[in-house]
Amino acid sequence: MSNIWFEVPKIEVLNRQMENTACSNLGIQITEIGDDYITGTMPADARTFQPMGLIHGGSNVLLAETLGSMAANCCINLSQEYCVGQEINANHIRGVRSGIVTGTATLVHKGRTSQIWEIRIVNDQDKLSCISRLTMAVVKHSTLN
């Protein structure tokens, strides 16, 4: 796929946007931007665990929606419209007890009013831990009050 960005995103700008949010509280960081994907990491530690000592499914979903949402908004002209999450699902495939998980959001569909993103989350051994699909609504600035 060719470059999908309206304006090529910068890692430092995206990371700065996450300051003082749930993303920064969970330690999420954007680490790579390609022509058609955004990659980020999240620690597998007490901030992201459920009581059994595994990454919480909700933490995986937060990482997935963060990556997909940031990517979606980088594909449009933000002076005219913006993207908001409409639906997300996740299949948790492998538990993670330590290390770092890495998620990569790739575009599946870019339409006039919606986008669909696939987010694959892997563990330190590059084994699939979670796969998620995120639907984003593309909203014109004048339609929400």
Automatic annotation (TrEMBL):
Domain Thioesterase residues, every copy: 52-130
Any one annotated GO CC term: cytosol
SUPFAM superfamilies, per database record: Thioesterase/thiol ester dehydrase-isomerase
A GO molecular-function annotation: 1,4-dihydroxy-2-naphthoyl-CoA thioesterase activity
Keyword terms of this UniProt record: Hydrolase
Domain of life: Bacteria
Gene3D superfamilies with a match to the protein in the record: Hotdog Thioesterase
PANTHER family: 1,4-DIHYDROXY-2-NAPHTHOYL-COA THIOESTERASE 1
UniProt similarity note: Belongs to the thioesterase PaaI family.
Protein name: Thioesterase domain-containing protein
Organism: Oleispira antarctica RB-8
